[in-house]
């Protein structure tokens, strides 16, 4: 499949890395030849220098033979124009535009029909949505939903003194008294596919599959309190803060936004009548304390500087804030961050490129294609949801009789009757079921049949 | 420095080399040449053993392969490949002297075609085949070949770009299609198809199969090893003309052929380098034909010899149909100038390349105009596209290094006491991968007279010329090896 990526910025190059590794024919367009050179040296791609919103440059990039155009420059208008031109030159092309301005995102459905834009993606909007979900269901570091909400994969950190500490996975069910599956463990920055004799240790981050009901039981039995957040402090008043504050205030949670620019404070105060907007420097301990950091239920650091977000989150941890969410733009540097107690890490750009990769994979193979893909364990593993159709092999055979590839785990099987089972050796899947597969990210699994040896 | 990754790559190149020795071995077996059979069998065994050891040592290589590793890897592979490629010559006893055998092999791989052998027709067929085949493999580049056949798992990152860039000639190397593997495949398919066409045309002229294949290898790689003492002179005029045309075809940038394949005729027709190249060839043929009139019987013969020699020299092949050392001074000067320029960028030919000359001429024109109108902002354009200042700068630097290397090499080989013409033309002929020079290294003579030290200098010149200087120079620079 031939793909053009317009805009070789952070998202563009993340996409180039991911998609070139999956073997697509990639062409990058950017106005700056410097960044293109760097990408050309790092990834197996072709580079075209120029303005991606001109027909000449699109022609040079061979848009007429391309299957998908992804416009992720930093200007909404350029992205949209680029998609429109591409669609005009090649009506069969799929187009994805990154659009941040809420005024444009509002008209997404109309634009889809009129100009054939297949997907519009708003990184800040989706980051806000992600943070909102985390705040509404605390206790987990990260939470991914599959099978229309019937299965979840959540990330937990094993604290010292937790019931899970020094527990072998075989004894897990006895302790927490419900059916869950630990599908991956991240220890010292390395993902491990555990077996029954694997013993959990302090500071492991574990990825657990379960149905939502069982997750509630899990939290209760582990003694992790799930009380609803009442007061959330947001540091920084950027776009993500706006989307987040709007969503939180609408569901009745009080929000304090601390922003250091007076003009921006006035702006968001006008936009968000229900939120408290504080004019002050969020990195100052005095400001945070006077705004009641000790009493808040969640601290979200969304300033534009990664280092500052990390510092504020660390301070929040020392004040005993129960839930902390930190925005990190440069996610490639996250190895060190994972060892710090700064709670969940959110990267709008990584979310954006993950969403696009998911779309690309779905486009590649319409039948038997993955319905949803989520990266877990710092991108070292992925959880993929498949629908079992008539082409799937080994339907109805117990799992223990199948030869499944190494490092591939069948994490859950959901049948049509709202029943989710965490499979054991005797379980099987049938046509119409939804299967969740967890695999190492190095293996590329395109269809369910790829998991068999 | 990622030695393991380099080792892995070099082991693969050795495998390719061993596999390509098999046809030569079969030819030796078929012709019952006992000595060369032993040479090839031992050669293959040694190469495979080394490749195996390298593979075992470099099993789990860390990632991280950058420009530095790419350049060093290219330089190292060519040296290792040449060192092992000369094994059959030595073991079979055909060229017992190590330095001579190495000279012959490097001359083959770098498509120079300069030889130390005087009695070529007495050599066994297997050895002659291997000698010509090194041209074919070296012409398009063995690393490009490895890129084309290696599994997709290795071409995921862009590091392969450094390999292509280091091995393919020209001021600006780009891919034809987004994927490196596909680019390498396209290049080799074009190369293969042109070679097969060449063989067929030669066979149609009544050439024996073995001669046709070896001559086509020499033409395709723009190498110039003949299998006869008098090169192509003994063959019919038809065969000579076929050689002229195919030499010129292999001196054209291969991306032009790709453009023809995807039916972009206009961009081929408008290509400035192609026009410059063909224009220079036509003008040179005309000048030389006028200059040598009277030396040969008919006009047809005069033009045929002029055209053949011009094509042979400009594409840096080095075949000959006549002893051009006997031509008048003007013709020899024209040929010497063509030797310096060489073929087009992205072709199998060597030399400074017409693309670079074009850039240099254009930037000189700009500098002259700048004197007249200092305020005017001028952009150098090629094919209507503005050229990056960095590329102009690199081209100027390349010219400087190019000249320095020629002068230094001339001084170094002067200790053997040959005439100035011989020394200069020998260095230019080796550095630009042409093959024959003038006087003592002329079309009818060979390089056997030089001492071991001079041969080593010329070997380095040949490698530096083929790989466009930097991959070889970098091997001598401490910064490349320092651990950081």
Structure write-up:
- The complex is a heterodimer of chains A (453) and B (484).
- In chain A, β12, α10 and β13 (254-259) form a beta-alpha-beta unit.
- Chain A is of the alpha/beta class.
- Chain A has 15 helices and 22 strands.
- The model of chain A has no long low-confidence stretch (mean pLDDT 82).
- In chain A, the strands form 4 sheets. Chain A has a 6-stranded parallel sheet with strand order 3-2-1-4-5-6, sandwiched between helices. A 6-stranded parallel sheet of chain A has the order 14-13-12-15-16-17, with helices on both faces.
- In chain A, α7 crosses α10 and α7 (123-136) crosses α15.
- Chain B contains 22 helices and 2 strands.
- A two-stranded antiparallel sheet of chain B has the order 1-2.
- The longest helix of chain B is centred in the N-terminal third of the chain and has 28 residues, at 3-30.
- Chain B is globular and about 70 Å long.
- At the A-B interface, β2 and α2 of A face α8 of B.
Name the features.
heterodimer, A: 453 residues, alpha/beta, Rossmann fold, Alpha-Beta Plaits, 4 domains, 6-stranded parallel sheet, 25% strand, B: 484 residues, mainly alpha, two-stranded antiparallel sheet, 2 strands, 64% helix, globular
């Amino acid at each position: 499949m031939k793909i053009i990526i317009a805009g070789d910025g952070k998202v563009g190059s993340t996409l180039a890395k991911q998609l070139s590794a999956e073997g697509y024919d990639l062409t990058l367009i950017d106005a700056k030849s410097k960044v293109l050179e760097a990408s050309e040296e790092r990834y197996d791609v072709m580079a075209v220098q120029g303005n991606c919103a001109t027909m000449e440059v699109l022609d040079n990039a061979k848009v007429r033979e391309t299957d998908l155009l992804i416009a992720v420059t930093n200007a909404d208008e350029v992205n949209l124009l680029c998609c429109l031109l591409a669609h005009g030159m090649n009506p069969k092309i799929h187009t994805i535009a990154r659009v941040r301005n809420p005024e444009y995102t509002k008209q997404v459905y109309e634009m889809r029909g009129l100009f054939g834009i297949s997907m519009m993606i708003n990184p800040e909007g989706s980051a806000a949505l992600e943070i909102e979900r985390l705040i509404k269901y605390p206790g987990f570091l990260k939470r991914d939903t599959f099978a229309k909400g019937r299965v979840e994969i959540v990330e937990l950190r094993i604290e010292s003194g937790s019931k899970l500490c020094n527990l072998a996975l075989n004894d897990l069910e006895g302790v927490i008294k419900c059916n869950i599956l630990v599908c991956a463990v991240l220890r010292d920055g390395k993902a491990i596919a555990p077996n029954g004799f694997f013993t959990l240790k302090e500071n492991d981050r574990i990825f657990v599959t379960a149905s939502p009901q069982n997750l509630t039981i899990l939290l209760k039995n582990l003694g992790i309190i799930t009380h609803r957040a009442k007061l959330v402090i947001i540091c920084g008043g950027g776009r993500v803060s706006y989307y987040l504050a709007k969503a939180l205030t609408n569901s009745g949670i009080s929000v304090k936004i601390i922003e250091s620019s007076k003009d921006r404070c006035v702006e968001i105060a006008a936009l968000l009548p229900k939120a408290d907007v504080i004019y002050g420097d969020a990195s100052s301990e005095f400001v945070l304390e006077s705004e009641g950091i000790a009493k808040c239920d969640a601290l979200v650091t969304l300033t534009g500087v990664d280092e500052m977000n990390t510092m504020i989150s660390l301070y929040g941890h020392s004040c005993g804030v129960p839930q902390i969410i930190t925005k990190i733009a440069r996610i490639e540097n996250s190895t060190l961050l994972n060892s710090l107690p700064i709670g969940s890490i959110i990267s709008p750009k990584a979310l954006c490129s993950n969403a696009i990769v998911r779309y690309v994979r779905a486009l590649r193979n319409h039948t038997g294609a993955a319905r949803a893909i989520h990266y877990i364990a710092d991108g070292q593993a992925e959880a993929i949801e498949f629908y079992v159709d008539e082409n799937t092999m080994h339907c109805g055979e117990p799992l223990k009789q199948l030869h499944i590839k190494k490092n591939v785990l069948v994490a859950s099987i959901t049948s049509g009757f709202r029943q989710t089972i965490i499979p054991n050796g005797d379980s099987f899947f049938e046509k119409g079921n939804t299967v969740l597969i967890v695999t190492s990210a190095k293996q590329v699994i395109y269809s369910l049949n790829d998991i068999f040896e | 420095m990622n030695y393991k990754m380099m080792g892995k790559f070099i082991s693969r190149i050795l495998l390719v080399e061993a596999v390509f020795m098999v046809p030569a071995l079969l030819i030796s077996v078929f012709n019952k040449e006992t000595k060369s059979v032993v040479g090839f069998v031992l050669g293959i065994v040694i190469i495979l053993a080394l490749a195996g050891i390298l593979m075992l040592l470099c099993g789990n290589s860390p990632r991280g392969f950058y420009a530095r590793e790419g350049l060093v890897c290219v330089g190292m592979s060519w040296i290792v490949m040449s060192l092992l490629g000369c094994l059959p010559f030595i073991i079979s006893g055909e060229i017992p002297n190590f330095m001579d055998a190495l000279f012959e092999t490097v001359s083959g791989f770098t498509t120079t075609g300069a030889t130390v052998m005087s009695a070529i027709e007495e050599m066994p067929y297997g050895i002659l085949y291997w000698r010509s085949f090194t041209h074919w493999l070296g012409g398009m580049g063995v690393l490009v070949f490895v890129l084309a056949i290696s599994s997709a798992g290795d071409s995921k990152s862009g590091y392969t770009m450094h390999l292509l860039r280091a091995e393919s000639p020209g001021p600006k190397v780009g891919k034809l299609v987004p994927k490196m593997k596909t680019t390498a495949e396209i290049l080799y398919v074009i190369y293969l198809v042109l070679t097969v066409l060449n063989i067929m045309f030669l066979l149609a002229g009544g050439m024996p199969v073995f001669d046709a294949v070896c001559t086509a290898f020499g033409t395709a790689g723009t190498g110039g090893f003949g299998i006869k003492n008098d090169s192509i002179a003994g063959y019919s005029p038809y065969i000579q003309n076929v050689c002229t045309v195919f030499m010129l075809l292999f001196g054209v940038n291969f991306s032009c052929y790709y453009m023809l394949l995807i039916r972009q005729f206009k961009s081929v027709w408008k290509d400035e380098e192609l026009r410059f190249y063909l224009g220079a060839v036509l003008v040179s043929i005309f000048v030389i034909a006028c200059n040598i009139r009277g030396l040969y019987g008919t006009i047809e013969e005069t033009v045929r010899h002029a055209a053949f020699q011009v094509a042979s020299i400009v594409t840096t092949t080095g075949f000959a149909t006549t002893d051009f050392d006997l031509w008048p001074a003007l013709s020899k000067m024209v040929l010497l100038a063509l030797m310096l320029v060489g073929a087009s960028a992205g072709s199998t030919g060597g030399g400074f390349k017409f693309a670079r000359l074009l850039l240099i001429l254009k930037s000189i024109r700009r500098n002259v105009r700048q004197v007249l109108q200092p305020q005017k902002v001028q952009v150098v354009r090629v094919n209507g596209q503005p050229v990056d200042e960095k590329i102009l700068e690199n081209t100027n630097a390349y010219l400087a290094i190019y000249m320095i290397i020629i002068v230094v090499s001339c001084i170094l080989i002067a200790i053997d006491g040959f005439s100035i013409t011989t020394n200069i033309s020998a260095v230019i002929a080796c550095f630009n991968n042409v093959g024959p020079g003038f006087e003592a290294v002329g079309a009818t003579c060979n390089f056997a007279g030089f001492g071991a030290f001079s041969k080593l200098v010329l070997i380095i010149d040949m490698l530096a010329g083929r790989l466009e200087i930097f991959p070889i120079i970098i091997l001598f620079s401490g910064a490349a090896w320092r651990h950081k």
